[in-house]
Design brief:
This protein has eight helices and 16 strands. The protein is an alpha+beta fold. It has three domains: about 70 residues, 2-Layer Sandwich (wza like fold), CATH 3.30.1950; about 80 residues, Outer membrane lipoprotein wza fold like (Roll), CATH 3.10.560; about 110 residues, Outer membrane lipoprotein wza fold like (Roll).
Length: about 325
């Protein structure tokens, strides 16, 4: 009798454990290969959409007055060359007016495809939009160029294309060029042009409609007085011009030049300062060479006339800057 009771208790205990495990199994979420595949497709689609969204934000935007070439695969009668109206719309056969201003070409293509499907005109349309001319998003070229202005460059313009359209750089142009984006000016870039042709080709970057190209102005040093070729000499952005280098650019001193009373005339806070230069000591390496700054005037007097040393600072500056020929 006691043995029978023990057997019954054991059976009840085992049945309770089995039923509890069964309930847990029923409540647990079921994972099937189909669910895994569906989840993977959703993640891939989400990633693709994010990538397309990020890419479209950096694409050029269509604006009023732009000239578009529309093509619909399998239905050439729906395509053609269209000009965006002042309201930012184009008129497409069967669809009618469609607003495209502010959109990238890819976004406008998708909108037209959806309109063709929703209207029951085509089942699986493929639309292509090419911007043939940006009327409102030309490239602005400013600074030290021959003809500053806005240039509607077609295709995929590069930096040198914009500089060429503006007539090239002036004699006062520096080596630094700044490029800013219309939509995000803080995301601009600075390019230091190299004299190496191979590096210059690598610096010929692509531009986008609406970009602004600013060519910097190089510093200049004036050499005046009894030198062979007085004039203004350009200081490139990566150069530090000294007194001896400036005299060398001016092709040296005349035989009648005096190494005494040589001076640098520098403008500081609206006032002219006179800095004496011991040229003879510098030329014999008994004194350090002096670095020049932008807009400095290096004046070398004539030994035959002491009156040159007594000239006023203002007259020296006027003569130096008035007769200067910018040289490199």
């Amino acid at each position: 009798m006691r043995t029978r009771h023990l057997l019954i208790l054991c059976c009840v205990f085992l049945l309770s454990i089995g039923s509890r495990n069964g309930l847990i199994a029923q409540n647990a979420p079921r994972v099937s290969p189909d669910n895994d595949a569906t989840s993977a497709r959703k993640v891939a689609a989400s990633t693709a959409n994010d990538a397309a969204s990020n890419a479209s934000q950096s694409d050029p935007r269509i604006g009023p007055g732009d000239l578009l070439e529309l093509k619909v695969f399998g239905a050439p009668e729906l395509g053609g060359t269209l000009r965006v109206s002042g309201a930012g719309e184009i008129t497409v056969p069967l669809i009618g007016a469609e607003k495209v201003a502010g959109l990238s070409p890819e976004q406008a293509q998708k909108n037209l495809e959806q309109r063709l499907v929703s209207g029951g005109f085509l089942r699986d349309p493929h639309v292509n939009i090419l911007v043939k001319e940006f009327a409102t998003q030309g490239i602005s070229v400013l600074g030290e160029v021959a003809r500053p202005g806005i240039y509607p460059l077609l295709g995929s313009p590069r930096l040198f294309d914009a500089l060429s359209a503006a007539g090239g750089a002036t004699n006062r142009a520096g080596k630094m060029i700044y490029i800013s984006r219309r939509e995000d000016p803080s995301a601009g870039s600075a390019i230091l042009l190299s004299q190496d042709p191979r590096q210059s080709l690598a610096q010929n970057v692509f531009l986008q409609p609406g970009d602004t190209v600013m060519v910097s102005r190089a510093g200049i040093v004036y050499v005046s007085g009894d030198v062979r070729t007085p004039g203004g000499y350009v200081m490139n952005n990566d150069e530090n011009l000294t007194v001896l280098q400036a005299i060398a650019l001016a092709q040296g001193l005349n035989p009648t030049a005096s190494t005494k009373n040589v001076r640098i005339i520098r403008r500081k806070e609206g006032k002219l300062q006179e800095i004496p230069v011991e040229l003879k000591q510098i030329m014999t390496a008994k004194a350090p060479d002096i670095s020049l700054e932008n807009e400095d005037v290096l004046f070398v007097p004539n030994s035959a006339s002491k009156s040159a040393a007594r000239r006023s600072l203002e007259s020296v500056v006027q003569v130096a800057t008035g007769l200067a020929i910018y040289r490199r």
